[in-house]
Amino acid sequence: MPDTTWLTQEAYDRLKAELDHLTGPGRTEITERIEQARSEGDLKENGGYHAAREEQGKAEGRIRQLTELLRTAEVGEVPEDDGVVEPGMVVTADVGGEDMTFLFGSREVGGDTDLDVYSPPRCSARRSTGRRSARRPATPRPRTSRSR
């Protein structure tokens, strides 16, 4: 079974909008660019054609990534802050005598944040999961039911 990705409703909506654009108008725009470049003649030396095909490949990869991420997403409300480190939280930790603030969870939740993001599968992040802190995390992870 695939890993669950915890998302806020805002992150879920943002990613869903990106997927909708890529599978609708985005895909149409790239197809039109490929057709326009194809009509220019020899494809071997047609930089516009090759650039459009590369862009198409990247877009299709992102579509697959977003589809799987949203399929396995757990979306919910912000729970009570109980001081336990869980995915989706902004955490401040003492690392080598220095305070380090980071988002513990998926990069997709981070959106446009300037914070470093550490995902639960990372070794150091796994050691932090479930750990209590004297300082309470700033943002708890979302909980409740799946949203589609």
Describe the structure in brief:
This protein is α/β, with parallel strands linked by helices. The protein has helices at about 10-40, 45-70, 105-110, 125-130; strands spanning about 5-10, 75, 90-95, 100-105, 115-120. It has a domain at about 5-75: Transcription elongation factor, GreA/GreB, N-terminal domain (Helix Hairpins), CATH 1.10.287.
Report on this model:
The chain is an alpha/beta fold. It has a domain at 5-76: Transcription elongation factor, GreA/GreB, N-terminal domain (Helix Hairpins). It is built from 4 helices and 5 strands; from the N terminus they run βααβββαβα. The strands form 2 sheets. Strands 3-4-5 form a 3-stranded mixed beta sheet, with no helix packed on it. Strands 1-2 form a two-stranded parallel sheet. Helix 1 (9-38) runs antiparallel to helix 2 (47-71). The longest helix has 30 residues, at 9-38. It is elongated and about 65 Å long.
Instruction: Provide the CATH architecture of the domain at 5-76.
Output: Orthogonal Bundle
Report how far apart the termini are.
18 Å
What oligomeric state is this? single chain
The number of helical runs is 4
Strand composition percent: 15-25%
CATH superfamily of the domain at 5-76: Transcription elongation factor, GreA/GreB, N-terminal domain
CATH-defined topology of the domain at 5-76: Helix Hairpins
Largest beta sheet: strand ordering:
3-4-5
Family: Belongs to the GreA/GreB family.
Pfam families: GreA_GreB_N
GO biological process, one term: DNA-templated transcription elongation
Biased composition (Basic residues): 124-135
